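Milestone 3.1: sequence recovery, worked example.
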């Protein structure tokens, strides 16, 4: 099941943060969002999303010979900020 604004239950994130910036479409699964929310809950601090889903028609994805991980919602990059520290993290969903 794809997570959309109509079925959104993840309190630490807003749908626009993870939607494709080109089409506005959502591509992350509910399973991924449950994983991300659990990670956020365990982390205990806000997580600033710096890159989310990209629809295959997104200009960056369209230039590639095949869509990358952003369009499969398999790998996400975010910036974690806590107590004044910032650290780049990459994490693969479930």
């Amino acid at each position: 099941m794809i997570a959309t604004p109509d079925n959104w239950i993840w309190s630490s994130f807003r749908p626009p943060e993870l939607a494709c910036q080109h089409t506005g479409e959502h591509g992350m699964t509910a399973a991924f969002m449950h994983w991300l929310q659990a990670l956020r809950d365990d982390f205990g601090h806000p997580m600033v999303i710096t890159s989310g889903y990209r629809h295959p028609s997104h200009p960056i994805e369209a230039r590639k010979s095949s869509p990358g991980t952003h369009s499969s919602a398999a790998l996400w990059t975010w910036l974690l900020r806590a107590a004044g520290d910032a650290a780049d993290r990459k994490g693969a969903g479930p």
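Residues 13-92 form one domain. The beta strands are 47-51, 75-82, 85-92.
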